[in-house]
Design goal:
This protein is an all-alpha fold and 209 residues long. It folds into two domains: 49 residues; 99 residues, no CATH class. The chain has six helices and no strands. The termini are far apart. 9% of the residues are buried.
């Protein structure tokens, strides 16, 4: 049997439709409204837009925040040190270092500053004794050695007497407050020359604190 002839136009139209048919995308569908974060690692799910913005904002602000915090701390420390320096000169209790704060420490300072202490003259006496010991005269060297012993004994006796009297005064004035370290604090202050003491003396010689 003979088949019916097929029109040529029908064949060309069929081929044209096949060529123009779009290819089917077999990739899984994703949310077109959610763009991929360029910072997200490949092979991992893309974070939500709010989470990505929060991460980028935190990363962008971390270095600036740390830099600003360091600068602010440095400035606050400089201001605090300047206040402490002024307080050491004026005796302002608000900005004194921790070792100098409190009524107990203030009383100990005033007690030492109000009296003559043998230990505060140790440096000038040490210079005199050193000069005498360098002179090549046997009698002067013996005198220098004797002066060394006298100065040391006087300093020890005066320090013991000052500690005993100061402890008694502190117990009378501040019976319920912590007085730990106040005696040693006062004795260390007595070893310094009056004009070099910090905080600066707030009482005169002979004035009762």
């Amino acid at each position: 049997m003979r088949g019916y002839p097929v029109p040529l136009g029908f064949v060309f139209r069929s081929r044209a439709k096949e060529e123009k048919a779009p290819a089917v995308d077999k990739t899984p569908l994703t949310d077109s409204k959610q763009p991929r974060d360029p910072q997200a690692p490949k092979g991992r799910p893309t974070p939500k837009r709010s989470e990505a913005q929060t991460q980028r904002r935190s990363v962008a602000n971390t270095s600036m925040t740390r830099k600003d915090a360091t600068k602010r701390q440095r400035e606050e420390r400089r201001v605090q040190l300047e206040k402490q320096r002024q307080a050491l000169a004026s005796g302002d209790e608000r900005y004194l270092p921790a070792r100098d704060k409190g009524p107990v420490r203030k009383f100990a300072r005033d007690y030492i500053d109000a009296r003559f202490n043998v230990a505060e003259f140790f440096l000038p006496m040490a210079v005199i004794i050193l000069v005498l010991s360098m002179v090549r005269v046997a009698s002067l060297q013996n005198i220098a050695l004797l002066l060394w012993l006298v100065v040391i004994v006087l300093i020890v006796l005066d320090s013991v007497l000052s500690a005993f009297r100061l402890r008694k005064r502190l117990n009378e004035r501040f019976p319920d407050q912590n007085k730990r370290g106040a005696i040693a604090y006062a004795l260390m202050r007595s070893l310094q020359m009056r004009r070099l003491r910090l905080p600066k003396p707030q009482v005169k010689r002979g004035e009762r604190p």
